[in-house]
Amino acid sequence: MLLTLPNKLGGYGLPRPELNARVVPSKTAGKFSTRAFYTCDLFWPDHGLAVEYDSTQFHTGSAHIADDSRKRNSLALMGVKVITVTTRQLYDERDFEKATSIIAKCLCKRLEYKNPGFTAAHMELRSRLL
Predict the structure, then answer these.
(1) Domain count within the chain
(2) Which end of the chain is more exposed for a tag (fewer CB within 10 A), N or C?
């Protein structure tokens, strides 16, 4: 919601991604993968962009880190760019805005704040969601 809601509602107005999208490894990537498909948290197939949320709850420990690494490597072989957002980045307004700027650039979009009430709406949205 932070990424895709319009500015007047406190979002950044980016295009909607597919949520929990299944991405099947290509033949080349499949040689290095042990999975029939990967699930990307957010995926823009037209731009070959995935955003993965690495929470502290599900992405710590050597086994999870290794799984995440294999997933990103397979996606890279398929030409998918992967942006990672951590819990710390999500909760830190400046870090999240930096990550959002990178996502927007990969989507060939400019972050624009046309609505003069954006900052207040954005803070309210963050407060409600986080």
Answers:
(1) 1
(2) C
